[in-house]
Amino acid sequence: MIENPGSLSAVSIELMIERPGSLAAVSIDDSTRLLVLDLDGTIWSNEFNPDRRPPFMRISRNEVRTGEGETLSLNTGLLELLNQARVRNVVCSIASMGDPDIVLPLIERFGLPIKFRHSQLGWDGKDSMVEEILRVLEAEDGIKVSNVEVMFVDDDEKNLLEVGNRFPGARLVKAP
C-alpha cells in the first residue's frame, strides 16, 4: 500500500508492479493494445545523460556509439519484447525525458524492428506523457485504448507509481 500524496485526504491504493529478471520474461497477452517504454535504463541499459550528441554510429546489433564516445547497449530482452508486440499488433510508443532532436535519431540508429508512434519526449511527468499518447492515438488514429490495455515499462519505480495512480489498471513493469 502507498499513500497518494496528490489527494487532499491521503488515500491508500495498491499497485502491482511486475519485476521480471529480463524484458524477455515479460509476456504480452491479448489484453495489451499499447506498450509504452522509457528510454534510459529501459530501452537501453545506460542511465540518463542529457549531453549525448551525434553523430550516432551503430557498432553492433545491440550497440550505438555517441559523438562523445559513450556506447549505448540495448537492454537484455528488449528485442524479444518488441517482437512480441509486433506479432500481436500492439501499438508501441515512448515516454521519456530527453530532447526529441537528439533522441529520435539515436533510436533510429538502433534499427529496432518496430515503429514507435506518437512518442512523447521532454521534461513532463510520465503520467502526462502517457495521457498525451492516449489522446493522440484516439484523435489522430481513431484508436481508443483503455487503462487496462496499457503496459508501461520503466526502470524508475517513481514513474511506475505515477502512471499507475493516474491510469488504474495499467500493467506496470519495472525494467531490470
Brief overview:
By secondary structure, the protein is of the alpha/beta class. It has one domain (17-48, 75-174): HAD superfamily/HAD-like (Rossmann fold), CATH 3.40.50. It has helices at residues 78-87, 100-110, 126-141, 157-166, and strands spanning 2-3, 12-13, 17-18, 34-37, 57-60, 63-65, 71-73, 91-97, 120-122, 150-154, 171-174.
Strand content: 15-25%
Largest pleated sheet = 6 strands, parallel
Instruction: State the share of residues found in helices, binned by percent.
Output: 25-40%
Order of helices and strands: EEEEEEEHEHEHEHE
The CATH topology, please? Rossmann fold
Mean pLDDT value: 91
Look at the structure and give the CATH class. Answer: Alpha Beta
Strand order of the largest sheet: 3-11-10-4-8-9
Number of distinct beta strands: 11
Helix/strand-derived category reads alpha/beta
Total domain count: 1
> What's the CATH H-level superfamily name?
HAD superfamily/HAD-like
Distance between the first and last residues' Cα? 22 Å
Can you count the helices?
A: 4
Radius of gyration: 16 Å
Poorly predicted ranges: 1-12
Layout of helices and strands, plus pairs?
Blueprint: E1 2-3, E2 12-13, E3 17-18, E4 34-37, E5 57-60, E6 63-65, E7 71-73, H1 78-87, E8 91-97, H2 100-110, E9 120-122, H3 126-141, E10 150-154, H4 157-166, E11 171-174
Parallel strand pairs: 3-11, 4-8, 4-10, 8-9, 10-11
Antiparallel strand pairs: 1-2, 5-6, 6-7
Helix pairs in contact: 3-4
